[in-house]
């Protein structure tokens, strides 16, 4: 998993007495947002891209950042197995959500993590889950270094030309005007509320899965199916 960087790593702590030490510890605890949530996490999944049958009994929620190399590995190595064994058979459905944080973590001059997420959401607005999935795979195939800006709006428009049935002028307007920025921000808030530690962050029926390996995700689906 590609993880969030802590907010307090560069803080110089000068401990003067017990009171100041206690205050600093309290501030550090408040800043931590990467611990697993206790119990089951509830998500608002209305209007989200879905792979599999809508009425499948088990729901897999996956938060991704298009700049995340581990997300690319999940898509290329784990998802095909999960899709074959669980999504295509009607045992589970997979809901894709955005958690764009890497560009911010690396303090890049352009937030191309968010641009990529917005582009995928623009495709979803036009062509639903199928268009979202096509562009998602194209962006992951074109993935560059996480520490460099590569998912520019111009590059994303080029990639979108390979999505079947997409009105390119409408897509360009959507991306240029940040039409889907609010939807991406809403996804990110859900990831933070779920205490996601990074990407890919995977939840099966609201329970976090520690690994994005197909076997681990499959085992979680099997366990959820028995409940």
From TrEMBL:
Keywords: Disulfide bond, Isomerase, Membrane, Oxidoreductase, Redox-active center, Signal, Transmembrane, Transmembrane helix. Coiled coil: none annotated. The chain crosses the membrane at residues 12-32. Pfam families: Thioredoxin_4. InterPro entries: Thioredoxin-like_fold, Thioredoxin-like_sf, Thioredoxin_domain. Residues 31-226 form the Thioredoxin domain. One of its GO terms (molecular function) is isomerase activity. Belongs to the thioredoxin family. DsbA subfamily. PANTHER family: DISULFIDE BOND FORMATION PROTEIN D, GLUTATHIONE S-TRANSFERASE KAPPA. This is Protein-disulfide isomerase. It comes from Deinococcus budaensis.
């Amino acid at each position: 998993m590609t993880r969030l960087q802590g907010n307090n790593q560069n803080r110089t702590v000068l401990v003067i007495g017990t009171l100041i030490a206690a205050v600093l510890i309290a501030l550090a605890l408040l800043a931590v947002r990467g611990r697993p949530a206790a119990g089951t996490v509830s998500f608002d999944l209305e209007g989200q891209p879905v792979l599999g049958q809508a009425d499948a009994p088990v729901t897999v929620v996956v938060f991704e950042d298009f700049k995340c190399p581990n997300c690319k590995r999940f898509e290329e190595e784990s998802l095909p197995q999960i899709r074959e064994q669980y999504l295509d058979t009607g045992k589970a459905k997979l809901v894709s959500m955005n958690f764009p944080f890497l560009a911010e973590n690396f303090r890049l001059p352009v937030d191309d993590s968010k641009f990529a997420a917005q582009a995928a959401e623009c495709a979803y607005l036009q062509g639903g889950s199928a268009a979202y999935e096509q562009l998602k795979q194209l962006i992951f195939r074109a993935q560059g270094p996480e520490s460099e800006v590569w998912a520019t709006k111009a590059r994303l428009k080029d990639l979108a030309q390979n999505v079947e049935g997409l009105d390119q002028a409408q897509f360009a307007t959507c991306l240029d005007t940040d039409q889907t920025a609010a939807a991406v921000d809403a996804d990110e808030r859900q990831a933070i509320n779920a205490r996601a530690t990074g990407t890919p962050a995977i939840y099966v029926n609201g329970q976090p899965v520690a690994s994005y390996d197909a076997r681990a995700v499959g085992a979680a689906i099997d366990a959820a199916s028995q409940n």
